[in-house]
Amino acid sequence: MGVLIKTHPIDVDGVDRDTTLLIIPQDDPPKYEAEMEPRLKKRNRSCCVLTVILCLLTILTVHFLILPNSYPSTLFSNLFSDTPSELDVQSPSIFVSVQVVNYETNILSVDSPDDSEVDHPDRSSEDVLVEALLLAMLQEAKESFDAEEAKEKRKEVESKGSRNIKDDVDDDILTPEDNDAAEVESNAVCSTMADDDRFDCLPQGDISEASCMARGCCWNQRSSVQMVNGTVKLGLPACFYPYKYPTYRLENYKETANGFEGTLQRSKDAKDIYPNPINSLRLQVIFDTAQRLHVKITDATKDRYEVPLPVLPGAPFSKPDTTLYDFVVTKEPFSFQVKRKSTGGVLVDTATNTFAFYDQFIQISSLLPSKYIYGLGEHTDAHFLHSVNWKQFTMWTTDIYPNLETPLYGVHPFYFSMEEDGDANGVLLFNSNAMDVILQPTPAITYRTIGGVLDFYFFLGPSPQDVTSQYMELLGKPQMPPYWALGYHLCRWGYGSVENTRKVMERNLAAGIPLDAQWNDIDYMDKNKDFTIDGSKFNGITEFVNEVHAKGLRYVVIVDPGISSAEAPGSYQAYTDGLAMNVFVQNASDQVIEGRVWTGNPQAYPDFTHPNISQYWLKQITDFRKVVPVDGLWIDMNEPSNFVDGSMVGCPKDSSLENPPYLPNIAGKTLNTRTLCMTAKHHAGLHYNLHSTYGIYQAKATQAALLQVFPNKRPFVVSRSTFVGQGQYSAHWTGDESSSWSDLQTSIGDILNFNMFGIPFVGADICGFGDNATEELCLRWHQLGAFYPFSRNHNAVSNRDQDPAAWSPAATEAIRTVLLTRYSLLPYYSTLLFRASISGHTVVRPLFFEFAHDKRTYSIDAQFLIGSSVMLSPVTTPNTTKILAYLPEGRWFDFYSLKKISDKGGEWIELDAPLDKVNVHLREGGIVPMQKPEVTTGKTRQNPIDLVVMLDKTGKACGEVYWDDGEQMDVLQKGDFSLVQFEMKNGKLKSTVVNDKYKDVPAMGSVRVVGLERTVKKVVWNGGEEVDFVFNDHTVMVKVGEMLGKESTVAMEFEMEFF
């Protein structure tokens, strides 16, 4: 009989409804057949039974004609009796027991009996053969049924309307059909499971059938997993989860003021695969905003490590009135969906049977809405658009040369997805522990992390730019850099002396190369020790830095985190101070942990989570600036790097922290490879948890120190290691790129990813860091790198010089030209960085950000947009003087000549690309502010602002210009800036001053309007006076500055009408 369990009432569509759970015995289905009729009709299992019976009758008929009197008379009674019975069959190759049931809700099941239960002394070989054929038919029918059943279950889930969790709980009724589905799915013949539904059940260890069966999973040796040079290359797994694999059940569900919560109870049938399973979990579903959903799963009984930095906003007190999403939950096995309300599209669906939560192994998988996946940094990938063909991304900050598919310097477990209809969404797992993220062709994603909690944030967009804005709204918007940082930077490891540094700088200034900052790498230090100077080779550095400042340039040096601990007591102040303030990371025995990096001797590591770190780090920087008045700091090796594994004396060997039960795909195959012991202690916790946050903690401490050194001035900090949300503390460069065409190409994807990660001030080492650049490579890389938000030339010791003036006069001039192009766009870059800081916008962006409904743009990574109005199409291959570029929909104009090159877009065109030119185009509908370029940002800032107005087909365009002093830190909070917006429509250009608190703004120069469809006969200023203009080839130019003289300013309101 049934048992009715009544739970709390909930409000659905304004009506109170009881949530009910109806539990029905498996052995009494007919009684409830009428009640379940809609679902039973849906399955229509009787048809499947009739099909099986007809197949059996066909075989039996043939058998009796060929082998008369050879078939046991018991067969028909077994097949057609009203009582379930067993037919036992034994042959050399087939040994099963078949149970056939004649009611719809349980068609058949196949089980393996013990040998002792079989006794068939009177059966002939012909009997065995026929019965084996029957069994094969039954098996085939069941496999076909199982596959269809699984497909129907998937379709049923996906076809549910846009419902929220309350509706789903109402419908969570256990029926005969549900019980049957569970049995069919849990006992499904694994070979019938579609390849797309295979999720790896045995990712490490003894990958064998026995190990797989011990986990209760499916085994099919048809697999594409390979061993390449001792490394497992992912592919179709041989061991995979069956349907309805036992995981957790949702209990104690209740609605809260800001969402839902419940308890996840581990199934009693769940397999103990790893040590210390967590049996009771807490589920929190928080409707953060209308566009952002927060889902968190953690231990229900005790606290676990959670990422301490960046500090995220607290949960809201109540749900928003409306949301872009629905949240749907399935109780058992627990899974959830996130749906887009407007389309019903399923963005996240964790019904993959993979969910597991152990102390040091947490796994969850989700189906993806499309194959268009980006992000998941920091890694070097061959393409910006990730392949979903069994791609693995390991999250663990690592000091390593960039190689394809290896974990690099930063951790950003955030993916960005374009949906099939052009909408966009993003998903962040806010977790800093070592982690593998796997993409597979389903398409689907799997997370495996070895600590912390599952802390997911879902961003609904729906536009690509909306997603990044919502992401930065959560994590913190990026800091605006000082204006001088927008200029060109020159650096190398291996100048070797202050004289050579001066020589290289001077030869570039003499060649007319625009330059704003000169840098030095570690060779300025005394024996590579932080906050010291090599008194021999860099004697006179103070005077040199004063010379740099006198030229209007800035000076930046490198600082590594390691502090030498091998010096005589009291002889090295940085170490002496650290001991006195107790700010060094400690080992498991509470002693200062020591590693080794560039000094070649033992070194200590500052604990940037320690309360005393602010005082310590400020003192070191302040004392150093008394000798070398630096303008910014470059923090490197802060993964943190260590040239010995763990420490100088090793790490505890019996700790599960050093040897976890599951090891992500770490370079070196141990967590402590080239870093500290996992048992090392920070003030905020264990290195096991905090490792990948070392860089963001150091960036925050460095920014805070520079703010005290330069009160209310924007600090300039560039960090190699990064974590989510670090854009508010530092810029980033992409590390030790090689001087190769492949690294030039992949750098585009790198800077696009970091703009999506909320660190828009990013760039790669122009010309590459490692190896020797050729002249052609270095020239082409400058034509790309001149448009990076952060533009710096840097290379390694012992390599050839690669600064612009080191090449032939022709190459030097070509580099100079493209750098001047960058400087002409400085007002545009500054305005974009303002928008990034205030609205979370990207500075450079992929084409699909502006053309989301054009799928041809989804895979393009050899071109990119600067803002919404400028497109770069660089040369990325050697010996190339023509390129094929894609022009998306709309009108496009050549940057240099302003001539229209496409009237409709949506086409590939061939472009000339001689060595001295990079292709830059302007997009219809935008207004771009520019200035005449000079050799420094300071000098360029003094020139008037020119506007280039690119009309669309309807004669409209819009844009803006932002201006401040280029230095104040709190300029946005105080509103001490000017912001002017421009709009043109109906033949009239109008400016609107949004804010004008900052008065020292440039004059207005010229206004050029391109794309006019008619001849301009007169131009009227502010509704009255006719003004002079020049009209030529669909372009009109008005020299506003000459017309108004000293009254001309960019922060003025005006109207200019064209007749």
Automatic annotation (TrEMBL):
Annotated P-type domain residues: 188-243
Region entry Disordered, spans: 147-185
Pfam families: Gal_mutarotas_2 (PF13802), Glyco_hydro_31_2nd (PF01055), Glyco_hydro_31_3rd (PF21365), Trefoil (PF00088)
Localization, UniProt: Endomembrane system
Basic and acidic residues composition bias: residue spans: 147-167
Keywords noted in UniProt: Disulfide bond, Glycoprotein, Glycosidase, Hydrolase, Membrane, Transmembrane, Transmembrane helix
Transmembrane segments: 47-67
Family annotation (CDD domains): GH31_MGAM_SI_GAA, GH31_N, Trefoil
MF GO annotations: alpha-1,4-glucosidase activity; carbohydrate binding
Residue ranges, compositional bias (Acidic residues): 168-183
GO cellular component: endomembrane system
InterPro entries: Gal_mutarotase_sf_dom, GH, Glyco_hydro_31_AS, Glyco_hydro_31_C, Glyco_hydro_31_N_dom, Glyco_hydro_31_TIM, Glyco_hydro_b, P_trefoil_CS
SUPFAM superfamilies the record matches: (Trans)glycosidases (SSF51445), Galactose mutarotase-like (SSF74650), Glycosyl hydrolase domain (SSF51011), Trefoil (SSF57492)
Any one of the GO BP annotations: carbohydrate metabolic process
Family from the record: Belongs to the glycosyl hydrolase 31 family.
Protein name as catalogued: P-type domain-containing protein
Organism field: Ramazzottius varieornatus (Water bear)
Gene designation per UniProt: RvY_16194-1
